[in-house]
Design brief:
Layout lengths: L2 E4 L3 E5 L3 E6 L10 H6 L1 E5 L3 E8 L4 E8 L5 H6 L11 E5 L3 H12 L22 E4 L3 E5 L3 E6 L6 H6 L2 E4 L3 E7 L7 E6 L14 E3 L7 H22 L7 H13 L5 H14 L2
Helix pairs in contact: 6-7
Protein name: DUF4429 domain-containing protein
InterPro entries: DUF4429
Length: 281
């Protein structure tokens, strides 16, 4: 397609197989939401899209919206419906006189969607920040280096339970998921879901949780961090579920990609490489 639509907070560029979203300040909206500023640029493959709509907005505006397939975007999966409408990265607000162009773009996009549009995605299709990433919460600094998550407790913010327990380190293999509770509501926090243990339901006492607060864990910082964690957990789970029928070359190639991305330590990479090689004999 190669066409471009400039809206209030973003410029969408349509290609034959994707939509490139560049978040920029507009003339009517000089202030860019901080989440959009943090996201910068995102490429959305059309295979990640479920639906495209054009609706009337406020003050004679028109809204072009793309709805991602469930399971396609780790950012949306981590948000779990908690994002405010103004922070929806899949929503483009346009002046009303651009309604015909928005409708034409929507029709062109729909014509390129495949039959899988109505099904949940089997894997994440939209990229998020790669490790190493860091988050400053109220009671901890949380680091993710690609293989493990470490909580460094704050002397002034952490409860006695956390401070006495000392800093905590969780290998990626110990996680089954991540929960993000928006700092915009009461009880905002980030919690790791662990494979073999259940933490204290109170996030300020859970050694696998970091509490948000005023000035700590803002959406533009904590949500991309949670999405990066979730993507890494799912990638690792996908590796574990690789069927043995898959060719040895494919499995080793995928293993090498995960190692290069920092999702496997050197020791883990060597152990799995040797195991796959033995199974292919």
């Amino acid at each position: 397609m190669g066409d471009v639509l400039a809206g209030n907070h973003a410029v969408w560029e349509f290609d034959s197989d994707s939509v490139l979203i560049r978040f920029v300040r507009g003339i009517r909206t000089p202030r860019l939401p901080r989440l959009f500023h943090a996201l910068g640029t995102r490429r959305i493959p059309l295979e990640a899209v479920s639906e495209v709509t054009v609706t009337a907005g406020r003050r004679d505006a028109v809204v072009l919206r793309v709805r991602p397939r469930p399971g396609a975007d780790p950012l949306i999966e981590a948000a779990a419906g908690q994002l405010k409408e103004v922070c929806d990265p899949y929503r483009l607000v346009l002046p009303g006189d651009r309604a015909p162009r928005a409708a034409a773009f929507a029709d062109a996009l729909r014509s390129r969607l495949g039959p899988e549009r109505d099904e949940p995605a089997e894997r994440f299709l939209v990229d998020v920040p790669k490790p190493p990433v860091r988050l400053k919460a109220y009671d901890a600094r949380v680091d993710f280096d690609g293989s493990a998550i470490t909580f460094h407790w704050s002397r002034t913010g952490a409860t006695g339970t956390k401070w006495k327990a000392g800093d905590q380190r969780y290998p990626l293999a110990a996680l089954t998921g991540v929960e993000w509770h928006s700092p915009g509501g009461p009880g905002g926090h980030l919690r790791l879901l662990l494979r073999d243990t259940t933490g204290d339901p109170r996030p300020d006492h859970d050694l696998a949780a970091a509490v948000f607060g005023v000035g700590y864990g803002a959406v533009h910082e904590s949500l991309p961090f949670a999405a990066a964690l979730l993507a890494a957990v799912r990638d690792r789970a996908a590796l574990a579920s690789v069927p043995r029928a898959r060719s040895g070359d494919d499995r080793l190639r995928h293993l090498s990609e995960l190692h290069s991305a920092g999702l496997l330590t050197d020791a883990e990479y060597v152990a799995l490489r040797d195991r796959f090689a033995a199974e292919s004999l």
